[in-house]
Amino acid sequence: MRTDILIVGCGCSGLYCALHLPKDMQITIITKSDLESSDSFLAQGGICMLKDETDYADYFEDTMRAGHYENDRTSVEIMIRSSGQVVRELLGYGVDFQREADGNLAFTKEGAHSKNRILFHKDITGKEITGKLLEQVKQCAHIQLLEYTEMLDIITKDHSCSGAVVRRADGAVEEVEAACTVLATGGVGGLYERSTNYRHLTGDAVAAALRHKIAVRDIHEVQIHPTTLYTPDKEDRCFLISESVRGEGAKLYNKNMRRFVDELLPRDELTAAILAQMEEDGMPYVWEDLRTIPVKELQTHFPNIIAHCAQMGYDVAKECIPVVPAQHYFMGGIRTDYEGRTSMSDLYAIGETACNGVHGRNRLASNSLLESLVFAKRAADDIAVKRHVKKPDRNGTENLKREERKGAGK
Ligand SMILES: Cc1cc2nc3c(=O)[nH]c(=O)nc-3n(C[C@H](O)[C@H](O)[C@H](O)COP(=O)(O)OP(=O)(O)OC[C@H]3O[C@@H](n4cnc5c(N)ncnc54)[C@H](O)[C@@H]3O)c2cc1C
């Protein structure tokens, strides 16, 4: 199989990159699972946006403080400065963010944010955004989507990437030749016993990078989310109790039903406090109290969380729920520059599988969807500028360069 651009992964980063590539490029997106089984569809809380210039310094500081000041400052600046444009584009795709009564966008808050700056759609923001991106992609004749097609490895020669080896749904293994390959395979949660991620997200692109001596960065930096619903039985995927629940007033209690921590600490600090409390209590969980949130707010903002808890036997309007930390996010990844370029030519990495240092040692809540979209678009722009063209195939028959094709009137 041959294509101009191969994108591995159809979460928000892969889809957004595809939408920003020139329409005269033939693009193939593959995914290991079905089209909707990506972490992007699971995102609950929301996506950050710089509301206006008065919030720039605080947003920058909150991101840096959460990341223990080990963030790449330029990446942070690019992300924050690009947020308005990304949100405008999302609105253009029909993404329906919550609005105030006067029609203005509504903003909520999560842990470690000093201000309300998070856009949301109930507690299924990721589904709303990624679903709309997928709809757009499906309308593009130049983009081909292949489900149940797993990248087994990338193909390299002289430290340049020329595509990937994939296994198709029927088990057939084949090579996909591509002038340019974009790795958008998400996180590593599938490797952990307890994670909020899909099981099939096992850091395959990072493994390929390590095999081919492509630079990686901060791969020891893994975020543990403080609050997932505790279940005594082992679950395929831990159910997240979004941080925005705490942003709206939910409290955490020890076994004696007493508060023991500031619920809006950065995720790593709160996780450490919860684990210490669990040890002190000799319990496998602590309690989270959502009764502190007005019932109407609970019903309109968190219907998905309420429904899932009800399914598990908890009425969150009447009782506390048991919560426990679980693996959630991968700050490290394949080292990239601000344009998503890796250390190998013709190979890009975007989204959670990439690392340009934007999150430092700990990601600030709701910066991930934003970062994925911002740097996916920049990678697409870079690919477009370079006008990647097909390389000679194995028989030595050189494909016509795009410009030549245009000249030939094809
Ligand atoms: C429960 C939950 C809630 C979250 N809430 C928020 C939030 O509110 N706000 C926020 O900003 N972030 C949130 N996040 C994080 C955010 O959703 C992710 O970081 C982001 O969506 C990652 O997007 P992505 O495109 O990089 O990867 P993903 O969306 O995970 O997509 C990865 C894609 O790669 C494919 N893939 C993987 N391996 C292979 C392979 N070998 N071959 C082919 N395809 C492959 C997968 O099938 C999938 O299509 C949340 C995450 C979770 C799990």
TrEMBL record:
Start-end of Basic and acidic residues biased regions: 392-410
Pfam hit, one: FAD_binding_2
E.C. no: 1.4.3.16
Gene Ontology terms: biological process: 'de novo' NAD+ biosynthetic process from L-aspartate
Molecular function in Gene Ontology: L-aspartate oxidase activity; steroid dehydrogenase activity, acting on the CH-CH group of donors
Keyword field contains Transcription: no
Pathway assigned in UniProt: Cofactor biosynthesis; NAD(+) biosynthesis; iminoaspartate from L-aspartate (oxidase route): step 1/1
InterPro entries reported for this sequence: FAD-dep_OxRdtase_2_FAD-bd, FAD/NAD-bd_sf, NadB, Succ_DH/fumarate_Rdtase_cat_sf
Co-factor(s): FAD
Source organism, top-level taxon: Bacteria
Keyword Cell wall biogenesis/degradation attributed: no
Catalytic reaction(s) noted: L-aspartate + O2 = iminosuccinate + H2O2
Region described as Disordered: 389-410
Alphabetical keyword list: FAD, Flavoprotein, Oxidoreductase, Pyridine nucleotide biosynthesis
UniProt domain FAD-dependent oxidoreductase 2 FAD-binding: residue ranges: 4-369
UniProt cross-references to Gene3D superfamilies, sorted A to Z: FAD/NAD(P)-binding domain (3.50.50.60), Succinate dehydrogenase/fumarate reductase flavoprotein, catalytic domain (3.90.700.10)
Family recorded in the similarity comment: Belongs to the FAD-dependent oxidoreductase 2 family. NadB subfamily.
The name this protein goes by in its record: L-aspartate oxidase
Organism of derivation: Eubacterium plexicaudatum ASF492
